[in-house]
Design a protein that fits this description.
The chain has about 325 residues and is an alpha/beta fold. It has 2 domains: about 120 residues, Rossmann fold (3-Layer(aba) Sandwich); about 180 residues, 3-Layer(aba) Sandwich (Rossmann fold), CATH 3.40.50.720. Helices cover about 35% and strands about 15% of the residues. It contains 12 helices and 11 strands. A 6-stranded parallel β-sheet has the order 7-6-8-9-10-11, with helices on both faces. Helix 1 runs parallel beside helix 12 and helix 8 runs parallel beside helix 9. The two termini are about 30 Å apart. About 40% of the residues are buried.
Length: about 325
């Protein structure tokens, strides 16, 4: 008999979805209308042994309590800040995620956002489409990115990949995170505040969760300054969003380029109204190739667990 699993969201990969249905008895919560989910879940929850979820959905204590046979939570994504480990750990429920396979695409988007903000590409697109070029409306020059300093907060896989790419554009590099990273010639700033003060661009690649919540605050933004740009491809929770809006509106921060937000998919209207902000809808890993690889890792972790093999990418 196939293990029964609860699937919280679909994968963009048809091959991944087909494998889930082939190997497991899947209960697809995302297919059930919101008003009907509670009653539907009551009927399937007692038999569910595995959960396939995402980094943004995760699993909370309330859902975990409704799944008495739950053995494994397979997260499609790197971030596990939405997983309530306090509820899972006493029950010995294992957690996996999908590190490594999305590094390059997220790093690519971070660089794209930095360039888009630095060279004001969205504003220039609007300038052309609105006919201002044909009208002869003057446009001020942007600043070159080469020679500027990019400070990277969070120097794991993605942070290092961002650094490698930005070096090719002629930027100087610095990083900060609580622990020193061995084997790199990128200098480490003394603190996050110092990193912001040292940088023209502050690129956020740190993990989400309680330890990093709101660390990019008014003081850090002030240190980055009126010519500085914040780039965030990590988690919206890391940035004090009201402080960010205020700094941008008041000219105390030069620009922002954001793929993540505090209350996704809700984006503050004030951010959307600002011309010096570039916005994308949390799509750092949204390529055909990477979503296939992420989904495959979810399937492979579930298969390994139910076959009694070692998990491929367990989360401690």
């Amino acid at each position: 008999m196939k293990p029964e699993i609860l699937v919280m969201a679909p994968s963009p990969s048809a091959a991944v979805m087909a494998q889930l249905d082939e190997h497991f008895h899947c209960h697809h919560l995302w297919r059930v209308a919101a008003p009907e989910r509670d009653a539907w879940l009551a009927g399937v929850a007692p038999r569910v042994r595995g959960l396939a979820t995402t980094g943004t959905i995760g699993i909370d204590a309330a859902l975990a309590a409704r799944l008495p046979l739950l053995e494994i939570v397979a997260v499609n994504g790197i971030g596990v800040d939405a997983v309530d480990f306090a509820a899972l750990r006493p029950r010995g429920i294992r957690v996996t995620n999908t590190p490594g396979v999305l590094t390059d695409d997220v790093a690519d988007l971070a660089v794209a956002l930095l360039l888009a903000a630095g060279r004001r590409i969205p504003a220039l697109d609007t300038y052309v489409r609105a006919g201002r070029w044909q009208q002869g409306v003057a446009i001020p020059p942007a600043r070159a990115v080469r020679g500027k300093v990019a400070g990277i907060y969070g120097f794991g896989r993605i942070g290092k990949a961002v650094a490698q790419r930005l070096a090719a554009f002629g930027l100087q590099l610095r990083y900060w995170q609580p622990n020193v990273v061995a084997g790199t010639d990128v200098p480490r700033s003394a603190s996050l505040l110092d990193l912001a003060r040292d940088s023209d661009y502050l690129v956020v690649c740190a993990p989400g969760g309680a330890a990093t919540k709101g660390l990019i605050d008014a003081d850090v933004l002030a240190a980055l300054g009126p010519e500085g740009t914040l780039v965030n491809v990590a988690r919206g929770s890391i940035v004090d969003e009201p402080a960010l809006v205020a700094a941008l509106e008041q000219g105390r921060l030069g620009a922002a380029a954001l793929d993540v937000f505090a209350e996704e998919p809700a984006v503050p209207q004030a951010l959307m109204a600002l011309p010096n902000v570039v916005l994308t809808p949390h799509v750092g890993s949204l390529t055909v190739e990477t979503r296939q690889a992420m989904g495959q890792l979810v399937v492979d972790n579930l298969l390994a667990h139910f076959a009694g093999r070692d998990l491929l990418t367990p989360v401690a």
